[in-house]
Amino acid sequence: MSNVEDIQDPLSIAEKWKQEGREVAIATVVQTWGSAPRPVGSHLVIDGEGNFQGSVSGGCVEGAVVSEALDVIGAGQSKMLEFGVADETAWRVGLSCGGKISVFVERLV
């Protein structure tokens, strides 16, 4: 799996890929808590071959999101993905990598 385009707007890439006849899924950050490296509304687009563009976590969970997106493309069922700590106790014990990110993955038709 690799980034296959120069750094561009992921939504523009998704449109281009759809016009090329590729199957495409989009992953969108819908909620964050704590130290999530990407804001709500950030996108990662994935084609049916596992090529991707954009970011939902600055590299922390992209591999897992791409894998889930391939399942979404195949099954046509959207998924909500949750990554991170379960609650605020991580901050009390000083985990610098604490935080949570929710990512919604859907197939573009």
- Alpha-beta classification: alpha+beta
Q: What gross morphology would you assign?
A: globular
Strand tally:
5
How far do the termini sit from each other? 22 Å
Q: Roughly what percent helix?
A: 25-40%
Q: Quickly count the domains.
A: 1
Report the average pLDDT across residues.
84
Strand order of the largest sheet: 3-2-1-5-4
Spans of at least 5 consecutive residues whose pLDDT stays below 50 are 1-6, 89-96
Strand content: 25-35%
Order of H and E elements: HEEEHEHE
Number of helices: 3
Largest sheet: 5 strands, antiparallel
Using the CA coordinates, give the radius of gyration: 14 Å
Task: Describe this protein's structure.
This protein is of the alpha+beta class. The chain has one domain. Helix content is 26%, strand content 32%. The chain contains three helices and five strands; from the N terminus they run H-E-E-E-H-E-H-E. The chain has a five-stranded antiparallel β-sheet. A hairpin with a 4-residue loop joins strand 2 and strand 3. The longest helix has 14 residues. The chain is globular and about 40 Å long. The N terminus is likely disordered.
